[in-house]
Amino acid sequence: MAYTGEEMKEKLKLYSYWRSSCGHRVRLALSLKGIEYEYIPVNLLKGEQFDPDFIKINPMGTVPALVDGEVVITDSFAIIMYLDEKYPEPPLLPRDLHKRALNYQVASIVSSGIQPHQNLAVIRYIEEKTNGEEKIAWINNAIRKGYTALEKLLVNCGGKYATGDEIYLADLFLVGQIHGAMIKFKIDVEPYPTLAKCYESYKELSVFDDAVPAKQPDAPAPSI
Ligand SMILES: N[C@@H](CCC(=O)N[C@@H](CS)C(=O)NCC(=O)O)C(=O)O
């Protein structure tokens, strides 16, 4: 099932940045559900997240932000849950209670246990107060600690993806995290076999390919 702008009265607007792992999760949800949307870039490196017009949309000065008519949602977890309730097909949460809880845990570990520690504002601050080496050590520690916990949580799940053979919430959070950490910080999932297996499976899906950072309208053209 696809949800087009025509049936939806007005297209959704997604404020995001090509390299944002939080934005990546939301693009994946939109892509999986076949929802048409308008992409509005906010250049984090140029500080556009602090522009007064954007601060009116998200006083936290972060992306992503979703605008659906009068509704404004400014956190990727909340955005994804909103989309899942408004556009239920395909569902992003399994019916099985244990698997559902696993999906919430993975999303939470990524969104509150890993991403905030590697976020641009935080790592810039650490570098300013200490040095580049401390910054790298900080990022490495946060990501590896999170990956170790995720690996332990998912090792016995079986299936192609995080919690079985269907794509759910946990997968959206893993894709953005793993891809972003590889590109931005050169941290691979190879030492974490379950995470590595999931990541290989994601790469075969075309919806996942559409959402990759390098394919977003604000990504720089590849150098020849
Ligand atoms: N909990 C928020 C976090 C949003 C967030 O930290 N976004 C990052 C990009 S992934 C950002 O906009 N950073 C801007 C900055 O640090 O100045 C979410 O999941 O949407």
From TrEMBL:
Transmembrane segments: none annotated. GO terms for molecular function: glutathione transferase activity. Belongs to the GST superfamily. Zeta family. Keywords: Transferase. This is glutathione transferase. Residues 10-91 form the GST N-terminal domain. Residues 96-221 form the GST C-terminal domain. InterPro entries: Glutathione-S-Trfase_C-like, Glutathione-S-Trfase_C_sf, Glutathione_S-Trfase, Glutathione_S-Trfase_N, GST_C, GST_Zeta, GST_Zeta_C, GST_Zeta_N. One of its GO terms (biological process) is toxin catabolic process. It is an enzyme of class 2 (transferase). Its EC number is 2.5.1.18. Coiled coil: none annotated. It catalyses: RX + glutathione = an S-substituted glutathione + a halide anion + H(+). The lineage of its organism: Eukaryota, Viridiplantae, Streptophyta, Embryophyta, Tracheophyta.
